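User: What would this chain look like folded?
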Amino acid sequence: MNVDKHATLGALLSSDPPRMEALAAVAALKLPDCWIRAGFVRDAVWDHLRGRAPTFPQADVDVVWFASEMARAKVDRDIEQRLHAYVPRYNWSVKNQARMHHRNHDAP
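Assistant: Here's the prediction, encoded as structure tokens.
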């Protein structure tokens, strides 16, 4: 991504208070290797390209992270509860990628 597009995307997200609130909630957890998945950003970009005001994310806000030493579903559920307590209007979905191959019955 060139510098102009990177700056445009940064400005787009930073001018969207609900998305910044979600990003701040996830950052506050200080999880290792943690990201909000692409749909969260994609929807903001589509709204911008269509000339619409930012829309509130309707689907899950997917949070992915990786920590093999914490690869238990209960940890993900606890994180979802913490995020919901911080920003209850989002439907949080948290998945530690270190355990997804087990859940999906894939080889590691």
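The mean pLDDT is 88. If you want, I can go into more detail on any region.
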